[in-house]
């Protein structure tokens, strides 16, 4: 009986002891599970926030090129200096007058080509011009008046029977006989106008006179 009761007591204690151990184990497990759940609840946002945050320093340390510094604006361009207005233009001189400061051109000699008149014999003028020569440059006009050929020059009165006067007279003689067919040619080569009008320097006085040297008509009796 003793042994049986002893066994019963031992058995009862063992059962009592077993229930306590199981309670303690369950409480411990429940506490650990609660702690784990709490840790997950608290730690998850921290890990999530740490992963979502950018890492500028880490990226900079990895060799990222920083943005260039802002460039300063260029200096303003200086305005060009004001230009002075151009000087007023000088009006051109009237036609026929030389410009101020210009050397006046020498006057052209009054030749038959530049001093024609309404009485100029144009055919005779053209004939004399074809022959040319220095003597033609002294001619101022050629006229046919009353059947006479008069050659006006710029020669002085002292040039009577001069070479140029004789040449002009001979040319006039050929013009009348060869071009006009005049039987009794009369030619007068005259000096420039003076106190005595236009003195005769050389002449031919009709068919009986074939020499251009100055012939003075005999005074009337």
UniProtKB/TrEMBL annotation:
<feature type="compositionally biased region" description="Pro residues">
    <location>
        <begin position="65"/>
        <end position="95"/>
    </location>
</feature>
<feature type="region of interest" description="Disordered">
    <location>
        <begin position="1"/>
        <end position="24"/>
    </location>
</feature>
<feature type="compositionally biased region" description="Low complexity">
    <location>
        <begin position="99"/>
        <end position="115"/>
    </location>
</feature>
<feature type="region of interest" description="Disordered">
    <location>
        <begin position="46"/>
        <end position="117"/>
    </location>
</feature>
<feature type="compositionally biased region" description="Basic residues">
    <location>
        <begin position="7"/>
        <end position="17"/>
    </location>
</feature>
<protein>
    <submittedName>
        <fullName>Uncharacterized protein</fullName>
    </submittedName>
</protein>
């Amino acid at each position: 009986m003793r042994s049986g009761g002893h066994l019963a007591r031992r058995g009862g204690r063992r059962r009592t002891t077993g229930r306590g151990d199981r309670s303690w184990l369950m409480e411990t497990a429940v506490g650990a599970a609660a702690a784990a759940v709490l840790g997950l609840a608290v730690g998850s946002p921290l890990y999530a926030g740490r992963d979502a945050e950018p890492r500028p320093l880490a990226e900079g340390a990895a060799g990222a090129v920083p943005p260039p510094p802002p460039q300063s604006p260029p200096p303003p361009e200086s305005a060009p200096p004001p230009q002075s207005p151009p000087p007023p233009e000088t009006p051109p001189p009237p036609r026929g007058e030389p410009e101020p400061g210009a050397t006046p051109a020498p006057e052209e000699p009054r030749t038959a080509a530049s001093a024609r008149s309404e009485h100029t014999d144009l055919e005779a003028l053209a004939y004399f011009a074809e022959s040319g020569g220095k003597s033609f440059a002294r001619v101022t006009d050629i006229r046919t008046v009353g059947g006479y050929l008069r050659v006006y020059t710029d020669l002085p009165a002292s040039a009577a029977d001069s070479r140029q006067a004789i040449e002009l007279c001979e040319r006039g003689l050929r013009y009348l006989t060869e071009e006009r067919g005049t039987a009794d040619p009369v030619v007068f080569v005259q000096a420039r106008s003076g106190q005595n009008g236009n003195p005769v320097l050389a002449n031919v006085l009709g068919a009986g006179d074939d020499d251009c040297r100055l012939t003075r008509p005999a005074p009337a009796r």
